[in-house]
Design goal:
The protein has about 475 residues and is mostly helical. The protein is built from 19 helices and twelve strands. The longest helix is centred in the C-terminal third of the chain and has 21 residues. The chain starts with 8 loop residues before the first strand and ends with a helix. It binds one RNA strand of 75 nucleotides through helix 4, strand 7, helix 5, strand 12 and helix 10.
RNA sequence: CCUCCCUUCGUCUAGCGGUUAGGACAUCGCCUCUUCAGGGCGAAGACACGAGUUCGAAUCUCGUAGGGAGCACCA
């Protein structure tokens, strides 16, 4: 068995200091795919050792985001805050073995050290002042530092970046436990990944620099380090790092904007990963084809236009059941009730290839569920003119007799009316469209009639005729 | 300053020593057409730069430039 098909046991380990943003979501997706593709496991772990910034709401937001994207986990969620005793135990072990030590340095001293190093044009590092301290000062709650090797080089083979090596002389003795007894990130990850027998750590490439320190800790613990795969980050469409300025920071904000999860999954997967020339992949195909080695190294920009294209694709050709769930959610949000108009499945079948998002779909479908206040002036002026009165009246009479209110019959009715009056389809189609919708854009006219429904269609034609009448007598 | 990472059309990417450098989104044009869409056809558009290695480099090596990350009792 080669590296690329060995079952991957990996995890997604967000810190609950915000929502699940697009970059985190993609890292989670890659980890999830890697696990699913190899028949391995995907574990969810919440890194909440930062008491100041971690919140329960964030935990919920992240779980909700994962659920919406249907990135299910096999184990967890585990919380680092539940594992404090374990970290303490490992720290004690390192302390007993002389691989870690208590440090009593004040923040002031550390600050001074940093400033001096900067001033001297050097990289700020802890100087090891407390490494071999004889007598401990009284009354100071020490932090615990890891005794990093002074010599040698840390080398690892990254599954996406290739070989990376850093000299130990570049590293210093990092704090692994704070004064208050909480472990720090670089230490907790190692203990957790070791305990959870993670064999491939998949994370953002901003962690490359942390990896050598962590490998040293694994070694000090006598553990075999896992493999690593550092995936590139996602930039905003302006090339700058993703931030609140870019709008949709939370994946759930994309839901609100009318995107369906399969589209976002497909888009995110193709951002930084590819399989030949293909663009469209179902979730199942992604699982079959994904290999972590095929992820590229370059940071990529988020392109909403391409997401829009994929979203439309999935609206049209994706699983209808899923789309209907999302559509219902948006209808509800827009204050529209499906009982007042066409079935959502009919609506979706007609509108899905005309819009890019569900928000657009719902907005453009309002007239099917609720009456409009006024006819858009431009459209009225152009299409609801006196010449339109006769065709509309004739059509109204014919439509009133239609028994089977279905697209085919409706198409025939409109065509027959046009033929009888010897006018082109457009002469009757546009006035009708404006009468039915209140403006000039809608699906094909027979489908529009179908969705508006018979009773409402007749009513709106009457309304339009009255409008033409009123305008005529006013002038 | 230092350490590490990155660099193919505007964007996402294919490419693993020999290709007219391919595809997709976006853009532009034409066709289809009862509106808007959609669909069809087509156009334009890239190897950051400079040296090597080689019969031959987008592909290998080294520089340069530009971007990013890290240097916390944040993760």
């Amino acid at each position: 068995m080669t590296d690329s098909d060995r079952p991957i046991r990996t995890r997604f380990a967000p810190s609950p200091t915000g929502f699940l943003h697009i970059g985190g979501a993609r890292t989670a997706l890659f980890a999830w795919l890697a696990a699913r593709a190899t028949g391995g496991q995907f574990i969810l772990r919440v890194e909440d050792t930062d008491r100041e910034r971690s919140t329960q709401e964030s935990v919920k937001a992240i779980l909700d985001g994962m659920a919406w994207l249907a990135l299910d986990h096999d184990e967890g969620p585990f919380y680092q805050s539940d594992r404090l005793a374990r970290y303490r135990q490992v720290v004690d072990q390192l302390l007993a073995e002389g691989k870690a030590y208590r440090c009593y340095c004040s923040k002031e001293r550390l600050e001074k050290l940093r400033e001096e190093a900067m001033a001297a044009g050097e990289k700020p590092r802890y100087d090891g002042h407390c490494r071999d301290l004889e007598d401990a000062p009284e009354g100071i709650q020490p932090v615990i530092r890891f005794r990093n090797p002074d010599e040698g080089t840390v080398v690892f083979e990254d599954r996406v970046r290739g070989r990376i090596e850093i000299a130990n002389s570049e590293l210093d003795d990092l704090v692994i436990m704070r004064g208050d007894g909480m472990p720090t990130y670089n230490f907790a990850v190692v203990v957790d990944d070791m305990d959870m027998t993670i064999n491939l750590v998949i994370r953002g490439d901003d962690h490359i620099n942390n990896t050598p320190r962590q490998i040293n800790i694994y070694k000090a613990l006598g553990a075999e380090p896992p493999q690593f795969a550092h995936v590139p980050m996602i930039l905003g469409d302006d090339g700058a790092r993703l931030s609140k300025r870019h709008g949709a920071v939370s994946v759930l904000a994309w839901r609100e904007m009318g995107y369906v999860p399969e589209a976002l999954i497909n888009y995110l997967a193709r951002l930084g990963w590819s399989h030949g020339d293909r663009e469209v992949f179902s979730r199942q195909e992604l699982i079959e084809l994904f290999k972590i080695e095929d992820v590229n190294r370059k940071a990529s920009r988020f392109d909403t236009e391409k997401l829009n294209w994929l979203n439309q694709h999935y609206l049209r050709e994706g699983a209808a059941e899923q789309n209907l769930v999302e559509l219902a959610w948006h209808m509800d949000r827009a204050g529209l009730d499906a009982v007042n108009g066409p079935a959502l499945a009919d609506l979706l079948s007609v509108q899905s290839d005309r819009v890019e998002t569900l928000v657009e779909l719902v907005e453009q479908s309002r007239p099917f569920y609720t009456d409009f206040e006024e006819i858009e002036p431009g459209a009225a002026k152009k299409h609801l003119r006196p010449v339109a009165a006769e065709p509309l009246a004739a059509l109204r009479a014919r439509l009133a007799t239609v028994e089977d209110w279905q697209p085919d019959a409706l198409q025939a009715a409109v065509q027959a009316t046009a033929d009888a009056l010897e006018i082109g389809f457009g002469k009757i189609g546009m006035p009708l469209r404006v009468a039915l919708m209140g403006h000039g854009q809608s699906p094909a006219i027979n489908q529009t009639l179908w969705l508006v429904g018979q009773e409402r269609s007749l009513k709106r034609i009457d309304q339009a005729l009255a409008f033409i009448e009123a305008r005529q007598s006013a002038s």
